[in-house]
């Protein structure tokens, strides 16, 4: 039974509260190339890529053990989704492009068309429908889940529907999505409401409640993820396909970890380390 965090436990460094943070988090050896590629792509499509946002570092940690192209593709998507959140009026045009329409003059539409044309043709109807459905509901709570959905096209793997729909797989993606969403909310200052108590608090207390929830969900994420390898084995996918699916499952751990590291690197939350 989990004990409720108290003032004493909150004084413990976050790395000690979370076993997941005890091991070093690797950075992609070509992070500088990822940054340069994202800036170049953003200029070509008309987006503004601010290096200070650190998307190359997030992608470099999330896909540290993969090729530069995989990490760069994820960083481009992250740049686009961040911009789209700032420009919700562009969403109808983006959805029209996803439905087969031509992009308009808006940079967000052109950037989405470029990424969609790169990723969607290699993915099946199930992934395309799931991603577009999530994109069409631009709620802040779903931001992390949308990022986790991008693990499949970035890795060039589509997880079979029976696995996607299983209770353990959903538990993993939901927990990982929550960690990403709340870390992002802490970094941007737009706090979610993970518990009813948050509505009654403000300032430092509200931040502490969200951080407590991040710790809880990260623990739940690791617990759920441990059940995925045997779950994949029971679906008889074959050795190569099973390895590919496990790569996606690993991304459900590394993407939230990248956001946690970004949180600890930020000036506002460096004291938590």
UniProtKB/TrEMBL annotation:
InterPro entries on file: Isoprenoid_synthase_dom_sf
Could you name the domain of life of the organism this protein comes from? Bacteria
Q: What is this protein called?
A: Uncharacterized protein
Source organism (scientific name): Streptosporangium saharense
